[in-house]
Automatic annotation (TrEMBL):
Domain ParB-like N-terminal, first and last residues per copy: 13-96
Species this chain originates from: Streptomyces hundungensis
Protein name: Transcriptional regulator NovG
Region (Disordered): 206-246
Amino acid sequence: MSAISAERKAPTFDIDIHTLLPADSPRFALDQAHIRALAESEAEFPPILVHRATLRVIDGMHRVRAAELRGQHTIGAHWFEGDDRAAFLIAVESNTRHGLPLSSEERKEAASRILRTHPQWSDRSIAERIGWNATGVGALRKEIADPDARPDARVGRDGRVRPATTAEGRRVAAEVIRQNPSASLREIAKQAGISVGTARDVRHRLAQGRPAIPESRRTDRSVGANDPATPVAPVPSPTVDEDTTGRVTAPDLARRITLFDGLRKDPSLRLSESGRLVLHRLHTQLRTTEEWRRLAPTIPLHGRSAVADILSACADDLRGMAQELRCVEDSLTG
């Protein structure tokens, strides 16, 4: 339930018009023509909303002035119990949802005030409250905000906390992909606190050998020499999957995941028993690579040679199978 609807469910009472103070409203001025039109109508006015602590009108100043023109001394009202900041937010939302629409300048002024009192709110969250657009709010934020004082996270309209920029989220996503190359986009997005679309872009950039964080979004905090968001430069060797230490580079890990994602969407594999088994084996293989990397330091010194021999033999078998698959494809296309 929104704050507005909650107030509308509060008890209605009559209040003396002369005790009311002018609204702390996003409007610059009242529309006199609208006041006269309301006064001349025979409609019964909905209750106004009054800030109990200050007796300021939060929503309904046009109705108050119209009631005065009618010669009324009282008007129906609801109390609002919140603080001044909350009262202003209710005033903005009320004027956005009904009655005369706010002008462009009035919306801009309201956005400016909310940005100062609630800098942690997202651009879209503020835009929805004032009936503006997120792009305009974002541009205004840059004009009035101190870059060093900007919050690291923002609260969206849904109440979820998200990074103020995606730079940190992209860095975390790159690390998640490095640690678990078979992780789904949804899993990457959840762990990194970013959208699925941003997670997809990170994986795509890594697969192309580009940084996970675009140049325009980098900060001194977000990218470092050993940062997983910085792609590992390929080395000039016949084997593109490994660097000089034998570690699989981040771009090539991402490339494997991209290839696997394409196979997972292939109906000929996904809808057949043998195809599903192939996908399962590939998924296991992708996870196994990272698992061995984590387990390797724990292997006792006296057993490492034997483990290495077994892994090498398995790698040779897999390499031979890969060569057979390529030979079959070449024969079909040749």
